[in-house]
Specification:
This protein is of the alpha+beta class. Helix 2 packs antiparallel against helix 6. Strand 8 and strand 9 form a beta hairpin. Strands 1, 2, 3, 4, 5, 6, 7, 8, 9, 10, 11, 12 and 13 form a 13-stranded mixed sheet that branches. Helices cover about 30% and strands about 35% of the residues.
Length: about 290
């Protein structure tokens, strides 16, 4: 293969569907409606490598209002791995995303553990591990303070999400919490939102994410109510290992680690309340 013939370019909408299929083949178990929401969030946020007219690799370079970027969805076609395609596309993605952001804006990523040192050579700093936990949904009664998130004013949801994600992503959240085949719940005490979470249907079972809560009690009640939506079915949640309460919650409900990624940042590391982050939203978009 002559890497000089590799064309690095933005993806078309149908090519994102191809990336979703590759992700499914890799065992990432995408949500049924992930592609539509990802594209709506940032149509210019997905790039790929083309060789001899065929798409051979993909990756995301999503910008959140030019203030924060996230790199994910990094897949090279299995039969072409080890030929340098991934290296060329990865640095292209990093540099393209930097050019789309305001000066000094940070970039986040969740990379596989065995590539951590390689990503560090590209300027990324490790902060902690995010662990994919697997369990089974269980029926539970809903706590009176757990309510449908649609009953909470959107400005409260946006503000709470921003304080836990690190920047505004209002359009994404509006789509994420109202997607088909999903349930979004909030924990509201004295008319104030103290936590929220979403569970969505995937190719197999369901995934919970995000799950943000100010207290372990709020996280517990949200988790059990969300889990109840998938009673007897497989569930997954990606938890930050640096939140001991998140680890305890997952363990308490019989969840076990099946996969993990290193959370890394390029630029200034965001100051996030990790003790209130029980489940990240996605490995693909942060």
């Amino acid at each position: 293969m002559n890497l000089e013939d590799l064309l690095l370019r933005p993806l078309e909408r149908l090519e994102l569907d191809q990336a979703i299929e590759w992700a499914a083949e890799e065992g990432w178990n995408p949500g049924l409606h992930d592609a539509d929401i990802f594209w709506e969030t940032d149509p210019a946020g997905f790039v790929g490598a083309e060789y001899e007219g065929n798409l051979v690799a993909t990756g995301s370079i999503v910008s959140y209002d030019d203030n924060f970027g996230f790199m994910g969805f990094f897949i090279v076609r299995p039969d072409l791995r080890g030929k340098g395609i991934g290296t060329k596309l990865w640095f292209f993605r990093r540099d393209q995303l930097r050019s789309r952001l305001n000066p000094g804006a940070a970039i986040g990523m969740d990379g596989v553990f065995d590539m951590q040192d390689w990503y560090a050579r590209g300027g990324f700093q490790f902060t902690h591990r995010n662990l994919r936990m697997h369990g089974t949904g269980q029926a539970a009664s809903r706590h009176p303070l757990v309510v449908p998130l649609r009953s909470v004013p959107l400005d409260q949801v946006y503000s709470f999400d921003q304080s836990h994600f690190g920047c505004a992503r209002d359009s994404f959240i509006k789509s994420w919490i109202t997607m088909p085949d999903s349930t979004a719940l909030g924990f509201v005490d004295d008319n104030r939102l103290c936590g929220f979470g979403t569970i969505r249907q995937c190719r197999e079972g369901h995934k919970i994410g995000p799950l943000f809560a100010e207290t372990p009690e709020a996280a517990e009640q949200l988790f059990t109510s969300l889990s109840s939506q998938a009673d007897g079915k497989p569930i997954w949640m990606d938890i930050p290992e640096n939140n001991s309460d998140a680890v305890a919650l997952a363990t308490r409900h019989g969840m076990t680690e099946v996969f993990g990624c290193a959370r890394m940042y390029h630029g200034e590391i965001p100051d996030l309340p990790w003790n209130q982050i029980y489940g990240i939203t996605t490995f693909e978009l942060g």
